[in-house]
Amino acid sequence: MNKIIQQFCQEGIKNLQERVIYLIQSGGGLSEAVSEIKKVTDALGRSICEEIIEALDEAINKDARRKKEWYVERRNEEKTVITKLGEIKYNRTYYRSKHGKGYRHLVDEILGLDVHARMDDEMHAELAENASNMSYRKAGKSSGEVEISGQTVMNKVRSLEKIKVENIATEKKSVAILYVEADEDHIALQTGKRAMPRLIYIHEGISEEGKRRCLKAPYYISSLKGTPGELWQEAYEYIEDNYDIDKIEQIYLTGDGAAWIRQGLYYLPKAKFVLDRYHMSKYVTKATAHKREYASKVWNSLRRADYDELALVFNELYLATENKLKRDEIKESWTYFKNNWDGIKIQAEDGERIIGCSAEGHNSHILASRMSSRPMGWSKDGADKMARLRAFKANNGKVIDFLKLQKEEKALYTVTKKLMKAAYKGIKTNINEKPCKLEVFKIGKVTGLYKALKAI
Predict the structure, then answer these.
(1) For 116, which DSSP code?
(2) N or C: which terminus of the chain has fewer CB atoms within 10 Å of its end residue's CB?
(3) Comparing C-alpha atoms, which of 429, 445, 376 is closest to residue 137?
(4) Which residues, other chains included, contact 105 with Cβ-Cβ below 8 Å and sequence gap of 6+?
(5) pLDDT digits (tens, 9 = 90+) for 84-138
(6) Residue 30 and residue 449: Cα distance in Å, rounded?
(7) Is the Cα dihedral 333, 334, 336, 337 positive or negative?
(8) How far apart are CA 184 and CA 173, in angstroms?
(9) C-beta of residue 153 within 8 angstroms of C-beta of residue 136
């Protein structure tokens, strides 16, 4: 390893310095200079990785333990892996088990690369992270030296099976009140039909942070393909894993009254339904837009949860309206309030314990901003994976950590100190015998940087 670093310091630094000075003098500025340096250091990193992997593969081939357990099937099979450094290309050996365990590229297994992997986990994670905020095509273009197609990015997102943050508290929290809010987005499918990804989030109330109001300890769940029952079961399991259910006095389930939201009452312990004020306001406006003097009367009845008074106000409003279309809207609004009267009544009875619902805003931020705010058509599978990914990111999840958890299969060949010692010996031999491939190694002399790099 020292040899390649020495070559870089002796022959490459001066040439790179001259190139950077030229770029700055010609008006390229700092950005072009940094870009040029990154190209060279990334190439150096790829060269080091390739040398290490091939030396490790050779060490495995000579390892006594390998000879007892694996036959050599083929040598020098090339593999290309896309990484954050660019494409790393190396040759490795293909083995057949002597004990019926199949065929393996043992060095790939040690490196944590799946059989058909064409990119490493860090790159996979970065693509998925980027795709959660931008189109698949743009995510592929932002991937660095190697431009990746939008189709590949989409496939990588879809490969994330049941992505979620596993939150299991070491010590369960004790809270008196828990809030659960739910809403859905409306997206276009590639078939021309519409679909509704659902969003559920659980929190402990609202805190004031300067001029901003924030949810306390929010946790988000979202899916398109999952049934309402599966989503509510997931919500219940999160509550059970993280809270002392015996200490919870009340769970307020807030939403627009849709059947799938009300289904949560059968899964959440000690739950009451609350009709959110956004939809109350929407239907008050629909009923009274043509006769604004009735809006305050409707609101007064709703705040007091006086059913008889509200019925009289709507009857008076209906009789005072001649337009058939407006009469239909008044009837629709009355039916909505009547069907959700339990959620209106809880608003009046529990008073200050109930806080405002922010489901519309959270739905816009988590789902709509990526899935429906711009014209696009989704497949059901793609929409489901994106909804889950957006909730995962809202829970501060890191895709790279999730990918590591997915790799449950135990490696059939593991690294030992003896193996790494042999690989290190092979690295020194390879680097001393082979000339470095980097174009930047042309002219120059030893600089002060050499000692610093060698120390690494």
Answers:
(1) T
(2) C
(3) 376
(4) 77, 79, 92, 93, 94, 95, 115
(5) 888 999 999 999 999 888 898 999 988 888 878 889 888 999 899 999 888 888 8
(6) 21
(7) positive
(8) 28
(9) yes
